[in-house]
Amino acid sequence: xxxxxxxxxxxxxxxxxxxxxxxxxxxxxxxxxxxxxxxxxxxxxxxxxxxxxxxxxxxxxxxxxxxxxxxxxxxxxxxxxxxxxxxxxxxxxxxxxxxxxxxxxxxxxxxxxxxxxxxxxxxxxxxxxxxxxxxxxxxxxxxxxxxxxxxxxxxxxxxxxxxxxxxxxxxxxxxxxxxxxxxxxxxxxxxxxxxxxxxxxxxxxxxxxxxxxxxxxxxxxxxx
Length: 224
Prior knowledge:
The protein is of the alpha/beta class. The chain is 48% helix and 18% strand. The chain starts with a strand and ends in a 5-residue tail after the last strand. This is HAD-IB family hydrolase. Pfam families: HAD.
């Protein structure tokens, strides 16, 4: 019976938050207002860490920012972002964990609240074919409109998106021998609670406490 391995991205497979770092990159390269944009980006990040973030409000901000730029310019910016920020942050232990599941023949996917524009090249760099992420709306020319398609892929939304994705593949969650989900955040407790093998990975304090109480394993990938 085939197994399933789901992975959160930021602070789980990466030791950084790709969404927040993308904003920092935009500030650093002068693409956005360095004061007001950074203030809002940091504010949303603090809300995420505290578990109080409204994902719709945040995605309005993040996707609205992307919509300011033509797609060709965005893609060039993202290539620079990958080279300067993401690729240096990818750790061998994260790659090895992914490869372990791939070699075992598991169905492997990244599921993240960060939008697909930011994360699709990261998933490709990590060698992961399947990505569940917030989907930005595109116009006929491939430019981003600033709108979100569907609902956010965060919190309980990760559960509904996982079920919808698996339904498209023809195998429900309970159709796998084992289902793993690796995450660092208490925001992902809804999905961690419905898989057979939840793994608190580089967990924040709230998740570490919750996982310890329930006997979930704790995994630390970035201690070196």
